[in-house]
Q: What sequence folds into this?
């Protein structure tokens, strides 16, 4: 058997190993830990797809995990201003944090995004998280791939995708910590920085203009606005921002709020204002495929605007439908909507299709947002990035992680995500070098 907490790679994989000091014993087995450096991430001659296939995929099949502790708790943080989601608005983050500790002492963190109308409520999420954590604690040592497959079996489909994503994040982060490699390198190492758009929450036109000025001064050049609730109010906000910052780019997210006729009308009025959004996201109801097709064709042919499918895509099958029938120019991928492995499947499926990708989040802290940022930076194939919810929170419960400079996220060589949650672990009595800080 492969030693627990170790990885064996084929001779075709460009990794090198240096032994680290083993720090623990578990179930009467020697725990062997390896520090791994990804030589391929430094090479400019290796494609992103090759780096990914020989990095993360190989690791899932060869690294053995033995979970010593796994638990989930409520993660509640207030938003600085309400954020509109379709016809409702959210004032607080009420998610679930997950902490997984391997027998080698290394810790990984994950976050379950809870949006009642999309992912269910926090209580139900906690029940499923604890079920998954119990399974991990009771499972014998196994490959990361098998552990992730079993989690997918326990938490199947779109109904439990956000919970599955949180557990997957925690396991993958723990393994990345074990092999001493940052997540962005694990996912391919395409880039060590990433730029994001910023969302303007549901506020008055004057407040929106003020926020736009604040964000523009910080270096943000693309603003995302949630529209679709009231056409008149939408235009009031847009006009207020455009009057002060005419050179800003806009992403407009209708959250299914328009009919196809209304969406076409909105685009015409925007053109009259001199506003041509970069993206027009989910303009019609999620099941209105013909409306999505019509608006997408009109937006592209008349104004050169790309329409994004978001709520319409709830599975890989939906994404394939968009590709095959040319229903939209861009698909919005979210870890909480597809899970980590599901998101990677979609990215792989769209690589040669011409369909562009946007990565977004639900209402999450820097824990889940950071994981998504690492993935996007590492793969380097996602054109549009809107991962900014941490800017909208009243406080930041996450310590460390990527460094933020205005609209730019910079990634260090710290292992895993490079940070940890402000969470006192009653059952853990030691602070270790693998981000297991209590």
A:
């Amino acid at each position: 058997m492969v030693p627990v907490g170790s990885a064996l790679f084929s001779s075709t994989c460009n990794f090198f190993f240096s032994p680290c000091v083993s720090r623990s014993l578990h179930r009467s087995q020697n725990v062997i830990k390896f520090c791994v450096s990804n030589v391929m991430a430094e090479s400019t001659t290796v494609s992103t797809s090759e780096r990914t296939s020989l990095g993360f995929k190989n690791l899932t099949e060869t690294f053995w995990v033995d979970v010593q502790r796994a638990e989930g708790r409520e993660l509640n943080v207030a938003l600085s201003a309400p954020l509109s989601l379709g016809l409702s608005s959210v004032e607080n983050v009420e998610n679930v944090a997950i902490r997984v500790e391997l027998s080698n002492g290394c810790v990984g963190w994950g976050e379950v995004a809870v949006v009642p109308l999309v992912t269910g409520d926090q209580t139900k999420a906690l029940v499923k998280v604890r079920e998954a954590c119990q399974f991990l604690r009771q499972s014998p040592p196994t490959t990361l791939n098998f552990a992730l497959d079993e989690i997918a079996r326990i938490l199947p489909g779109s109904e439990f995708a956000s919970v599955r994503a949180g557990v997957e994040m925690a396991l993958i982060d723990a393994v990345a910590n074990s092999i001493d490699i940052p997540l962005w390198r694990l996912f391919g190492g395409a880039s060590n920085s990433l730029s994001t758009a910023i969302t303007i929450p549901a506020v008055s036109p004057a407040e929106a203009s003020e926020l736009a000025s604040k964000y523009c001064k910080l270096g943000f050049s693309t603003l995302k606005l949630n529209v679709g609730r009231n056409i008149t109010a939408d235009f009031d906000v847009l006009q207020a921002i455009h009057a002060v910052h005419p050179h800003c780019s806009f992403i407009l997210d209708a959250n299914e709020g328009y009919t196809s006729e209304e969406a076409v009308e909105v685009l015409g009025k925007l053109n009259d204002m001199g506003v041509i959004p970069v993206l027009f996201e989910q303009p019609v109801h999620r099941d209105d495929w013909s409306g999505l097709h019509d608006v997408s064709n009109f937006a592209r042919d008349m104004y050169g605007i790309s329409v994004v499918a978001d709520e319409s895509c709830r599975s890989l099958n939906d994404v394939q439908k968009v590709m095959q029938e040319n229903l939209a120019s861009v698909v919005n991928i979210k870890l909480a909507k597809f899970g980590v492995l599901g998101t990677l499947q979609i990215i792989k499926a769209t690589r040669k299709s011409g369909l562009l990708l946007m990565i977004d989040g639900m209402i999450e802290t820097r824990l889940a947002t950071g994981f998504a940022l690492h993935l996007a930076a590492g793969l380097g194939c996602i054109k549009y990035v809107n991962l900014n919810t941490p800017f909208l929170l009243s406080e930041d419960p996450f310590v460390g992680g990527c460094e933020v400079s205005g609209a730019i996220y910079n990634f260090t060589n710290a292992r895993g995500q490079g940070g940890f949650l402000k969470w006192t672990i009653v059952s853990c009595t030691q602070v270790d070098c693998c981000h297991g800080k209590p």
Remarks:
- The CA atoms of residues 280 and 349 lie 23 Å apart.
- The chain has a mean pLDDT of 84.
- The first strand starts at residue 15 and ends at 19.
- The first helix runs from residue 48 to 54.
